Amino acid sequence: MAPDVFNLLKADHKELEDLFAKLTSTSQRAVKTRAGLVSKLKTALEIHSRVEESVFYPALHEMELTHPMTLESLEQHKLIRQLMSELELMSVQDEGWHAKLKLLHENFQSHIKEEEAELFLKAREIFSSGQMETLGQRLQSAKQEAKSSVE
Question: How many domains, the chain?
Fold first, then answer.
């Protein structure tokens, strides 16, 4: 039995949150560590976004109950991508680097809070357990595909 879609997405959220925590705790002198963690964060964010946008959001987009929330989530993804691109272009020693990281992290936290507290609850009302399992399987496959194309 495949894990349901919500547990898979929450596991991704935790993995990303752990990367943010590691990055936040680095010092300005930890140039190589920061650069490596920024690269890992970008890859993990890209994989997670692709999977949500190709599997999870399309399934919810069609439903009246969740349609507006999926549109908002897609916009949040665009903003997070933009902030990630800006962070990646900055020197990890730049005095504004930590502020940009904090802004990116806050936007990510806001996004997952809304997603887990609101969108997941509404989605559970819409999908049967079989549909959630099928979405979970599709999500796992999409994640493997995204990993091989991004990494």
Answer: 1
Kindly report whether the global pTM for this prediction surpasses the value 0.85. yes
The span from the CA of 13 to the CA of 84, in Å, is 16
Q: What is the pLDDT along the chain (151 residues), one digit of tens a residue?
A: 567 899 999 999 999 999 999 999 988 888 899 999 999 999 999 999 999 999 999 999 888 889 999 999 999 999 999 999 999 999 988 889 999 999 999 999 999 999 999 999 999 999 998 988 899 999 999 999 999 987 6
Query: Residue 74 has which token pair?
Result: 């897609």
Domain hosting residue 112, numbered range: 5-150
3-state secondary structure of 93: coil
Return the CATH number at 146.
1.20.120.520
